[in-house]
Structures are given as C-alpha cells and as structure tokens.
C-alpha cells in the first residue's frame, strides 16, 4: 500500500525537458557523430554511464568504476563464465605449497603501456599496496597476509598468518598497477592518467565531461576490434534514454525498467542481465536507535522487499533475502519475512528517530527505494529523515563510522565467494563495521581455514543467519537486473554479472 502510494507521487519528467537536457549534454560532450559518419567495424565506441567514476585508481576506488579502468588495467587473475579463477590472465597458475603459503606464476614478457615491466615484482607491489595503502578498498581482505615476495621475475609467494583458502579468488579483483609510475604520481595522479597492461590505453579526458581510451597496439592478448571508447555520463535516466534513441551514443548503460521498456517499444535493442549486485540496507548497531536489538528487528520486519520489487521495478529486479548468497540464483536457508504489524508492536509509542543515507543517482531508482524503505519505517512508528549523498562522500562517511541509522547501498561481490561480504561487511574490522560481534569474527576465521568453498559453505550459512536473521544488522533488499541499450548496428558488448564489461569485440 505504501509503495503504491509513493509511486503515484513521483514527479513525471516531460519528454521535451529530457530531450532539451540531452541536447545540452551532447554539446558539453563535444557534439555527436552524424549517421553518415557512423561506420561498421573499426570505430570509437560511445558509451554512456549513469554517473561519473569517482576515481580511476583501483587501489582506492570502488568497483563501480571498473567499467572504465578495466579497459586499461587488468586483474591479476581472470575468471570464467562460472566466475571461477582461470589461467588465462596475467597470473597463469597457483599452488598451495602448504597450509599458509600460495605460489603464483606470472605470465612472462608482459609490459605496461609506459614500458615498465609487468613482472612478479609488479604483482607483489600491487598486492602490497592493496594490503597496506591507508585508503585501499580491499584492505580488510588482506589483513591475514604476512608476506608477499617475488623470488624471481615470474614467481610470487604469498604467506598468510593462518590458512586462507580464497587467496586466488581475491586476486581476481586486484588490478595490476606499474610500481614506479604509481609511486611517482600517487593515487590522484594515477587516476588522472591510468597506466596498465590492458587492451586500451589512456587517451585523455575533459574534466566533468568525458573520458577516452584508445586501442593498445602492443597489447599482449587479443587486440580490440574497435579504435577505442569514449565514456560520458548522464545522471537522469530519461536523458540516457533520449541519447540512445537519438543515436547520439552507441551504448546506454543502467536503464531503469520504465526507460528499458520505452526503449524496447521504440525498437531499440535492450539487454537485461540478473547481476550479482544486491542493494542492502545496513543498520548501525553501534549507535542509536539501532543499538537497541528490538528496534533493529522492527526495522527488518517493516521493510517489504517483495513490494519494493513489484512496486518500483515492475518485477524487473529479484527480491533477495540473504547477504552471503553471492551468485545469481542462490538463496539463503533462512531469511526474514516482512511483518508490519509485529514491527509496529515492537516500536510502540516511542517514535525513535532514524536517518536513512543513500547515494543519490548512483543506482537505478535508488531514491524511490530509499523513500519506500522510509515509508515502511514510518508506518511502523519510526520518525525518518533522508540524507542523499554522492557516492564518494557516503563511502568515506561509512568508513569513518559517521553514518548512524540506515545506509542503503550496493554490495557487489567482485569476488564470487561469501567471504567477500563477510570481510567487507560482517567482521568487526570491515568496511562498514556496523555489526561488531566476536562470534562473527571467530566463525569468519574458521570459514577461511577450511580446505575449500564446499567445506566452508555451512559456516557461511550460519554467519548469514546471525547477521540477517538473528541480529538484524542487514536487510537485503533485491538483486539488480541490469539493463543496457545498444544503437542499431552495435554488437559485441559483453556484460558480466559482476558488473564487468568487455568492449574489445564491440563494433558499430
């Protein structure tokens, strides 16, 4: 009921206004190609994003920006169609020498686009930066690593304090950076002109307007079939729809259901993919009001994920009640079912104040989702205020433990193993740190010490139950169905469930 009422109150965006904004954006982006200028085969691909990447430094940057930096930089280990590590990338093999030692072999004779050697020393340096850099996004995942050595040009040895079965999985989201260049430029300097080993190289940027990469003629692997990619962005979904309909861009990413349906009706090709990215409401159990377990339970029972999926996404999302079921199609063994009456009973007449923080314009329909969550809490008796923030600011505040109440943002398991969310969100020393509990830390360590994923699975199921069902620190909402549209004649875009895009075979 609440969600239906909210949807009726959304302001319509006039088509004329959207087209006017789109026209202004095209001017800002340096104009658009005419139909006569379009040609099949080799060309520069024009890709439209929903938001400007916060940074192109993979050491400190959120993985939402990898769609851009992964054209130039490569992960240490590639993954196959089942999201498992494979030997096709920079690291070609790995062995567990003993319970706490991993040995990796690095592909020989690879160089960065600036000429630096992409050898074992570079790999060791990147893993070290990932573990030690103060602002590293993946810092918490490598705290168990005690030594990283490169005994020769093609060998890296990683030692851990205690056994850890998923080190190769973690390296699938660690992107190789050139040691000398990164040290000279620092994080900001590197982000301003990234250097990597990938199929594209940096071609320049217009601040706040666009980012361009061009084909790397010296790429060690299969070379791109296009000349390069120019990335632009538009926060308004109607603007992204208008630009793809007018053929001003070749690919328009992140179309909400309404715009995706409109594009299909207009004859535009739209691809829909269920992703591993899930939107989660994080409750801070260390501060009021959710330092009270009763109020956390009330909030969890008040939020109806099925109603959100139906009312906001017209069913074009997948309700997801678990935290550690990281692959599409997986569901937890135990979950929380919405019970508004019980939620209201638990809140009583206290009218506790709760703040909802969310990254404005970062995810599809995120403002509507935040309002729907807030409306559910208000019906239960909470007094709600909303704090929309840009994504970078929200992440900094979360890491700084400055977000009381609820924060809503995406969990993207760039590594398709449960520990990625355990170390990122559940453990006391995690990115969010919103549910400190020695029992969780103990079980998390036990899971990593198992021989492999199959043996660890029951422990992760127990951890999911503690965090979501027993303690109510996390309210998983839904798994996103990602829509992108391509202009006529555009083909070869490969979008993966871990929010990755391979442009190398894209033509127009």
Automatic annotation (TrEMBL):
<protein>
    <submittedName>
        <fullName>ABC transporter substrate-binding protein</fullName>
    </submittedName>
</protein>
<dbReference type="InterPro" id="IPR000914">
    <property type="entry name" value="SBP_5_dom"/>
</dbReference>
<keyword id="KW-0813">Transport</keyword>
<keyword id="KW-0732">Signal</keyword>
<feature type="signal peptide">
    <location>
        <begin position="1"/>
        <end position="28"/>
    </location>
</feature>
<comment type="similarity">
    <text>Belongs to the bacterial solute-binding protein 5 family.</text>
</comment>
<dbReference type="Pfam" id="PF00496">
    <property type="entry name" value="SBP_bac_5"/>
</dbReference>
<dbReference type="InterPro" id="IPR039424">
    <property type="entry name" value="SBP_5"/>
</dbReference>
<feature type="domain" description="Solute-binding protein family 5">
    <location>
        <begin position="89"/>
        <end position="429"/>
    </location>
</feature>
<dbReference type="InterPro" id="IPR030678">
    <property type="entry name" value="Peptide/Ni-bd"/>
</dbReference>
């Amino acid at each position: 009921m609440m969600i239906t009422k909210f949807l009726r109150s959304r302001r319509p965006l006039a088509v004329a206004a959207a087209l006017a904004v789109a026209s202004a954006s095209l001017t800002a982006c340096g104009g658009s190609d005419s139909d006569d200028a379009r040609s099949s085969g080799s060309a520069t691909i024009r890709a439209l994003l929903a938001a400007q990447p916060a940074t192109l430094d993979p050491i400190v940057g959120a993985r939402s920006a990898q769609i851009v930096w992964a054209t130039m930089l490569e992960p240490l280990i590639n993954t196959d169609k089942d999201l498992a590590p494979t030997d096709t990338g920079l690291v070609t093999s790995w062995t567990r020498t003993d319970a706490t030692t991993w040995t990796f072999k690095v592909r020989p004779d690879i160089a960065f686009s600036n000429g630096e050697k992409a050898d074992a020393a570079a790999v060791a340096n990147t893993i070290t930066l990932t573990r030690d850099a103060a602002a590293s996004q993946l810092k918490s995942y490598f705290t168990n690593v005690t030594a990283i050595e490169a005994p020769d040009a093609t060998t890296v040895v990683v030692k851990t304090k205690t056994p850890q079965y998923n080190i190769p999985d973690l390296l699938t989201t660690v992107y190789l950076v050139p040691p000398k260049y990164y040290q000279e430029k620092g994080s900001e300097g590197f982000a301003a002109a990234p250097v990597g080993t990938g199929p594209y190289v940096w071609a320049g940027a217009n601040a706040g307007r666009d980012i361009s990469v061009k084909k790397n003629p010296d790429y060690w692997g299969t070379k791109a079939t296009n000349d390069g990619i120019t990335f632009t962005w538009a926060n308004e979904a109607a603007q992204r729809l208008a630009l793809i309909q007018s053929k001003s861009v070749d690919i328009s990413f992140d179309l909400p259901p309404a715009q995706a349906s409109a594009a299909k009706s207009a004859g535009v090709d739209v691809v829909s993919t269920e992703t591993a990215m899930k939107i989660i409401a994080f409750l801070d159990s260390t501060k009021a009001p959710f330092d009270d377990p009763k109020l956390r339970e009330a909030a969890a029972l008040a939020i109806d994920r099925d109603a959100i999926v139906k009312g906001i996404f017209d069913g074009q999302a997948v309700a997801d009640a678990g935290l550690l079921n990281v692959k599409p199609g997986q569901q937890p063994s135990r979950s929380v079912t919405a019970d508004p009456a019980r939620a209201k009973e638990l809140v009583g007449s206290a009218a506790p104040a709760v703040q909802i923080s969310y990254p404005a314009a970062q995810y599809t329909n995120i403002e509507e989702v935040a309002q729907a969550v807030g409306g559910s809490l208000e019906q239960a008796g909470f007094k709600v205020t909303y704090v929309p923030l840009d994504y970078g600011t929200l992440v900094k505040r979360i890491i700084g433990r400055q977000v009381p109440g609820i924060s809503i943002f995406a969990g993207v398991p760039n590594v398709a193993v449960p520990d990625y969310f355990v170390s990122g969100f559940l453990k006391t020393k995690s990115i969010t740190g919103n549910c400190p509990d020695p029992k969780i830390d103990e079980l998390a360590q036990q899971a990593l010490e198992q021989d492999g994923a199959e043996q660890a699975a029951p422990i992760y199921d127990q951890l999911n139950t503690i965090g979501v069902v027993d303690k109510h620190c996390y309210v998983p909402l839904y798994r996103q169905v990602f829509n992108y549209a391509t202009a006529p004649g555009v083909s070869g875009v490969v979008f993966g469930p871990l929010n990755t895009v391979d442009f190398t075979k894209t033509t127009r």
